[in-house]
Amino acid sequence: MQPMNESTAITPEDGVPYFNPRICVIGLGHTGIHHAMLFSEKYKTIGYDSDRARTDKLMRGHGSTSRVSDKLLKQAIRNGLSCTSDVEKIRKCNFYVIIVPPICVERNESDLRILWDASEIVGKVLSGGDIVVYDFCVGTTIMENDCISIIEQVSGLTCNFNFFAGYSPGPDNFEVKGFTSWGIGKFTSGSTPEITRIVDEVYTSVFTVDTLNNKATETVIAKK
Questions:
Q1: Least confident of 10-19, 84-93, 113-122
Q2: Domain residues for 84?
Q3: Most Cβ neighbours (<10 Å): which of 62, 107, 141, 192?
């Protein structure tokens, strides 16, 4: 595996590089905004949505659905969470989490457009060493055959050589404890063993229930 570049790694005293995530959550629907709020408790986090009215409303501290706590959203914004519809503002991120409603990718091929658009957006801003995680929104076959290919075409980069992929499917039924904990563990995996470890560490650090490493998925998306 190609080493991560200097912009995405920090070298501590022992000389071993490790990943320093700057997170962007793509898609600020119900699940996306809660993920962004969770990640912002630990990491610098930007939420991106193409709907400017939605991001403006979120930045005023008003949730996009009645189930979003305005109090916790405002707290997350005070702690550094920002929401934007400006693609240029997410260019310096290095850990992209794509979250779109599952209904948009399960009915028929035309419903995949929202997922393709999200992949194209990431492809436009991607840099060497970055990680792209498909969370909650798509199966591994579509991710590999469609999404990763789109990112490669738009960015001119190659998966597992210039950038890396991660996967975290559902589950959707999380506990309502201020929308900061899940009732059961998240599955995580990556396109290489090292990326699997990084994705798992990032998720475990913010979800109160440890993630469950899914080695079978790792094999599926290790395409190169």
A1: 10-19
A2: 21-221
A3: 192
DSSP state of 15: -
d(CA 224, CA 66): 43
Q: What CATH code is carried by the domain that includes residue 40?
A: 3.40.50.720
Q: Is residue 8 part of a domain?
A: no
Could you give the angle at which helices 70-78 and 30-40 cross, rounded to 10 degrees? Answer: 40
- Per-residue 3-state assignment (H helix, E strand, C coil) for 64-83: CCCCCCHHHHHHHHHCCCEE
Across the chain, mean pLDDT equals 78
**How many domains does the chain fold into?**
1
Q: What pLDDT was estimated at residue 60? A: 93
For the chain, what percentages of helix, strand and coil (3-state, to nearest 5) are there?
Answer: 40, 15, 40
Find out whether 132 and 213 touch, Cβ atoms under 8 Å: no
pLDDT attached to residue 184: 53
CB atoms within 10 A of CB 172: 10
